[in-house]
Write a structure and sequence with these properties.
Mean pLDDT: 93
Helix content: 25-40%
Oligomer: single chain
Strand order of the largest sheet: 15-16-14-13-19-20-21
Strand content: 15-25%
Low-confidence stretches: 178-186
Number of strands: 21
Number of helices: 16
Structural class: alpha/beta
Length: about 500
């Protein structure tokens, strides 16, 4: 019997392949970064072929580190940066344009046009999302309108759309060359997505879990381009290449994968992931909950033929990306790890608040006209204060989302499960507990995004028999409790909110 499950975690800045054992412990990890392409202000792109090469590279490296072959894996799952949009030719496998990344704001004109008839919430009752540049549907429209010949090729059935999970899976299961899918040969790779990724397109109806014909017509997106929508945990096909013969059996958007990896299977359970952006998800059970506080109603996951599970989500565009910006654009630090050391050279933020609205503001504001602001500067302020304000911005943004979550759900969150790269930053985690006023808990396995994809894949093939097996694997590593005086917390929160208002109406 196979002893392991693999997970491809294709994120915004890097790709990982992680091998897990039956206890959910990490056996081996391989990780490689890829280029961030910024053709114009507000535009963010990736090279889909580079991402594919990185996936193959980390698969080979991860298997080698674990000292195993493909035959030792019971299944492989995929977690992916969501909303990032790839359009490619089904006959050649070549993308027609770079991947347009979720942070990209080039569709703001089209979004404003859509909002003229029905406002920002025009489709919210059907798709759970406000009109925003964040989602993949408008990005498909941009490609069809701006890449010469793309619309005609799409309407002829020659082009396929996918978020990164679909792009990777199509190639992993054979791509244009065709490969075995467990039921004979197919003309090409498997073209599917799961409910969690489809729910980020602004094109999927929350109740039918299918593409919404009316919205497709308004967006101008041919249905023939779109992948079929499947459960998050089922066998989609078999891999070729380095993972030849391994069932591809898990598919989740990265934030939903983290919800799954944190074993938030009961309504009311919540997790917060600190990555390029920051994303809080609350399991709301088998019914979608409409937000009145600026959150997204989204799909959490679906296991096989069981009813789908929904979630409320608070999405923050810039968290770890701010640390990268201080490193790469400003040269304030040489490596991301140095941010904590630099921030600890001062006792507080020196009155500085850093609102990183580089791609506008996401939850709970949804302001595409906002841009980043550093407020409260005086001659007293030094590099340490800027570093500290940068870290604190992630905690304050999380506080705003948690307040919205409490208002929408009617249940006060009593503890915050956290994961992602920034949770190793102990200064940030203590400040986070201080400003939300509840304990912050880091699990033993911080790579919960990849773990969630592995869990989904393993469940589909019987490697784990039930979600109770997964719950038994979860263990706490460290807990931070609030120590800040409540009066100070609320005073600083008021200043943060004042700084946020300074970002509004910048783009005319």
């Amino acid at each position: 019997m196979q002893k392991y499950v693999g997970a491809i975690d294709q994120g915004t800045t890097s790709t990982r392949f992680i091998v897990f054992d039956h206890s959910g412990a990490e056996v081996a990890i391989e990780q490689v970064e890829h280029r961030q392409i910024y053709p114009r202000p507000g535009w963010v792109e990736h090279d889909p072929l580079e991402i594919l090469a990185r996936c193959r590279e980390v698969i080979r490296g991860g298997l080698a580190r674990a000292g195993i072959g493909a035959g030792d894996l019971a299944a492989v799952g995929i977690a992916n940066q969501r909303e990032t949009t790839v359009v490619w030719d089904r006959r050649t496998g070549q993308p027609v344009y770079n991947a347009i990344v979720w942070q990209d704001t080039r569709t703001d004109g089209f979004i404003a046009e859509l909002a003229r008839d029905g406002g920002q919430d025009r489709f919210r009752s059907r798709v759970g999302l406000p009109l925003a540049t964040y989602f993949s549907g408008p990005k498909i429209r941009w490609v069809l309108d701006n890449v010469p010949g793309a619309r005609a090729r799409a309407e002829a059935g020659d082009l396929l759309f996918g978020t990164i999970d679909s792009w990777v899976m199509w190639n992993l299961t054979g791509g244009a060359a065709g490969a075995g899918t467990g039921s004979g040969r197919s003309a090409e790779g498997v073209h599917v997505t799961d409910v969690s990724n489809a729910s980020r397109s602004m094109l999927m109806n929350l109740r039918t879990l299918d593409w919404d014909a009316d919205i497709l017509a308004v967006m101008g997106v041919p249905r023939s381009m779109l992948p079929s929508i499947r459960a998050s945990s089922e066998v989609y096909g078999e891999a070729v290449g380095d993972l030849a013969g391994v069932p591809v059996a898990g598919d989740l958007g990265d934030q939903q994968a983290a919800l799954f990896g944190q074993t938030c299977f009961e309504p009311g359970e919540v997790k917060n992931t600190y990555g390029t952006g920051c994303f809080m998800l609350l399991n709301t059970g088998t019914e979608p909950v409409a937000s009145k506080s600026g959150l997204l109603t989204t799909l959490g996951y679906r296991i096989g033929t069981e009813p789908a599970r929904y979630a409320l989500e608070g999405s923050i565009a810039i968290a770890g990306a701010l640390v990268q910006w201080l490193r790469d654009n400003m040269g304030l630090i040489r490596s991301s790890d140095e941010i904590e050391t630099l921030a600890r050279t001062v006792d507080d933020n020196g009155g500085v608040y850093f609102v990183p609205a580089f791609s506008g503001l996401f939850a709970p504001y949804w302001r595409s006209d906002a841009r980043g602001v550093i407020a409260g500067l005086t001659r007293y302020v030094n590099r340490g204060h800027i570093a500290r304000a940068a870290l604190e911005s992630t905690a304050w943004q999380t506080r705003e989302v948690l307040d919205a979550m409490n208002a929408d759900s009617g249940v006060a969150v009593t503890a915050l499960k956290v994961d992602g790269g920034m949770v190793r930053n102990e200064l940030l985690m203590q400040f986070q507990a201080d400003v939300v006023g509840v304990p912050v808990i880091r699990p033993k396995v911080a790579e919960t995004t990849a773990l969630g994809a592995a869990y989904a894949a393993g469940l589909a093939v019987g490697f784990w028999s039930a979600i109770d097996d997964l719950r038994a694997n979860w263990a706490s590593d460290r807990e931070w409790r609030p120590t800040m005086d409540p009066a100070r917390r609320e005073k600083e929160y008021r200043l943060w909110k004042k700084a946020v208002t300074r970002t509004f109406d910048w783009v005319e």
